[in-house]
Amino acid sequence: MANYTGVHILGNSPMSVRFDSPANVWQDFFVEDFTGDFDLTKGEVWLNTAHQGALPRVAADEAREAISWKLHPWEMTTERFGSVPSRLRRILGRLIGAPAEEVILANSSSYGLHLLANGYPWRSGDEVLLVRDDFPSTILPWLGLERRGVSVRQIRPRGAVIGVEDLARNISPATRVFCTTWVHSFTGYAVDEGLLGSICRDRGVAFVLNASQGLGARPLDLSGMNVDALTCVGFKWLCGPYGTGFCWIRPALRESLEYNQAYWLAMQDADDLGTERELTIRKDLGARRYDIFGTANFFNFKAWTASLEYLLERGIDRVAGHDNHLVSRFLDGLDRRRFDLLSPRTGSSRSTLILVSHKDRDRNVAIHRTLKESGIFAALRRGTIRFSPHLYNTEGEIDRTLEMLSRI
Fold this sequence. Notes:
- The structure is a single chain.
- The protein is α/β, with parallel strands linked by helices.
- It folds into two domains: 6-47 and 315-407, Aspartate Aminotransferase, domain 1, CATH 3.90.1150.10; 59-312, 3-Layer(aba) Sandwich (Aspartate Aminotransferase, domain 2), CATH 3.40.640.10.
- Helices cover 34% and strands 15% of the residues.
- The strands form four sheets. It has a seven-stranded mixed beta sheet, sandwiched between helices.
- β14 and β15 (384-387) form a beta hairpin.
- α10 runs parallel beside α12 (395-407).
- The longest helix has 19 residues, at 78-96.
- The model is unreliable at 1-28 (pLDDT under 50).
């Protein structure tokens, strides 16, 4: 399991970063200025990446080129048509430390969860474990299994998120799958994915992780993790357009799925049209068999690929260090006499989601509205205020937000 509670600069370059635990030393990080790479220049402060990440300029350029292809259809060559999904698959493989051919292209985190829920070879009496109060997209795909004789049980954790003891105590001989989120949208707590995965591996349970609120703000390498399936959106911390996402399923689990899907452009190339004699379902496609339909989605996938390349060129470690420095600055400056911090202050469970509440909780709605009217955008979730800074935010924006909170 990787740890994200501290960062040091190696040498004089902010590009060389290592993560340590347990010391909380984010304040030692040299904050870089990425603002020129984005178009957030009108005075607004976007602190709601957990809802939508801003699109980098390079991605907007790619989107404009994609529009040009559609304006002038002769520019949509066979090579360009095929390069859109293949380029995206390669960069996603680099991002998560998995072979490109194991990446499944999607439009959301829900897509991969539905593949698993509807394709797993269930038997009557099997059980799925979920976490009560998890994000709806992590829960809903499994609930329909109950009519097939599959028990869906939601664990009520003793803490903000599920711990190892909670999981170990609840796994039964009938448990086949455990699914949870990496970073909880409503609390800001991150789970210990390493220990949860080890428990699942030891008990023969498939571990499914929704990484939508973590990937892009913290590094991840599947090659060293006991995760059987990973699903993620592309439009939050990965700064892609809405309607993007992907999933990865461990090959042995993927090959066990019983899911009826035969997208024609996965089965053949457009150039094959008119040459086939008898259509058959290919058995050699691997993960590509389960791609979302319309994989040459150049309006979305071309721009998202550019966003991913941008993030990887700068380094996810650098981005994580920058983001967590901003989190520390916010937490250090928060007036605890007036506001309660509901998300972690330190430790490996801390993420880049900050949840706070005024001591008088009934004031949160009005505070959120006042922030928005002043050009500071956060989220209101279950009656609390959530801030989620990313690489395009600055220390000055954090200070401006804290100043506003001190006067509300």
